[in-house]
Amino acid sequence: MSVSKKENKEINSSRIFNASRDLVWEVWSRPEHLAKWWGPKGFKNTFNKHEFKNGGVWSFVMHGPDGTDFQNEMVYVEIMKPSKIILDHVTQPKFKTTVTFEEMGKRTKVNFNMLFESEQICDAVKNVAILGNEENFDRMEALMCEMNGAVLPKEFILTRTYNASAELMWKMWTEPTHMAKWWGPKEVKVGQYKMDFCRGGTYHYCMITPDGGEMWGKFYYLDIVKNKRMMFINTFSDKNGGMTRHPMSPQWPLQLLSTISFEEQSNKTKLTIRWYPINATEDEIKHFNDGHASMNQGWGGSLERLGSLPELTTCPVPADF
Asked: Does 311 have pLDDT greater than 90?
């Protein structure tokens, strides 16, 4: 599929929330709510001006977790209650943001589009903005769950430290021949696979169970920062690459946002896995929240297999295992 010049200058993010469109609009339009969730994880805001009207100015300072301040000014170009907001970010980097709100019964889909002046600026911002937009959605979801009593997803986090460089660990996750050696529970093996490792690419694979059964899965890569981080949506799949339900647990969320971080520390690498259900119903979120023990077992088995690969066993196996 060809990519247009406009698409090369865009960053698109979307999320479905268990909240009415009126509530979603409220948390986007009222400054006392915006200040609580706007920005990536760990950021805080000081609003200098917020004029929610066509031509109105939104001026604020984002305070980073390391103490760095980021001056921002935006102008509301168009407000169409309750379906669309268009803003111009007039401080550097300059871009146009279009946010749409789609009613889906009792739920709401938010589409967030950033259009930059050039491909070069867009590429430079992607390493921060793709992850930041997802964290923004997470914070927004948490606030709305607090306001309407919906079930809040409980993020699953797992860490391991390996006696290997970040570069070597990266290869274990990004080269399909390596991935096939360790991905999945101990008792299964990866049979067929196809990987297109890039933003917008996929990894489609088949796990073979001891009795010869097939279980397909798929990654949809959203963000890739070499040797540092990857983000993908993880789903169950079928042979043709379609999205399917968990074959043994139909209440399991269809989509899980997976963020894998690689932090090099004195010739070792700390691997952090973050798993978070997105676009999930409340029943699916409850099922995920109740399943953390099984996730520890499942992920733990895969990571133990990873640590036992010949490529990583030239040094002693870390104490984590």
From this structure: no
On whether the CB atoms of residues 256 and 235 are closer than 8 A, the answer is yes
- C-alpha torsion angle, residues 312, 318, 320, 321 (rounded to 10): 60
Structure tokens at 34: 């915006």
Domain boundaries, the chain: 7-148, 156-312
- In three-state secondary structure terms, 303 is helix
Q: Which residue has the tokens 């599929």?
A: 1
Geometric angle at alpha carbon 72, from 71 and 76, rounded to 5°: 160
Residue burial 46-72, b: 16+ Cβ < 10 Å; e: rest: eeeebeeeeeeebbbebbeeeeeeeeb
CA-based radius of gyration for the chain: 21
List Cβ neighbours of 261 (8 Å cut-off, separation of 6 or more).
Answer: 228, 229, 270, 271, 272, 274
The per-residue pLDDT for range 45-81, each reduced to its tens digit, is 999 999 999 999 999 999 999 999 999 999 999 999 9
Tell me the C-alpha distance between 91 and 154, whole Å.
35
Return the exposure string of 199-235: e unless at least 16 CB atoms fall within 10 Å of the residue's CB, then b.
Answer: eeebbbbbbbeeeeeebbbbbbbbbbeeeebbbbbbb
DSSP code at position 173? H
Is residue 246 within 8 A of residue 234, CB to CB? The reply is no
Say whether 156-312 and 7-148 share the same fold. Answer: yes
Of the candidates 112, 180, 153, which has an alpha carbon nearest to the alpha carbon of residue 279?
A: 153
User: Which amino acid is it at 24?
Assistant: V
**Confidence (pTM):** 0.92
242-264 burial: b if 16+ Cβ within 10 Å, else e: eeeeeeeeeebbbbbbbbbbbee
Q: What is the CATH number of domain 7-148?
A: 3.30.530.20
Cis-peptide, bond into residue 176, ω within 30° of zero: no
**Which two three-digit tokens encode residue 226?**
């070499």
**Residue whose C-alpha is closest to residue 43's, from 59, 63, 60:** 63
Query: What's the topology of domain 156-312?
Result: Alpha-D-Glucose-1,6-Bisphosphate; Chain A, domain 4 (3.30.530)
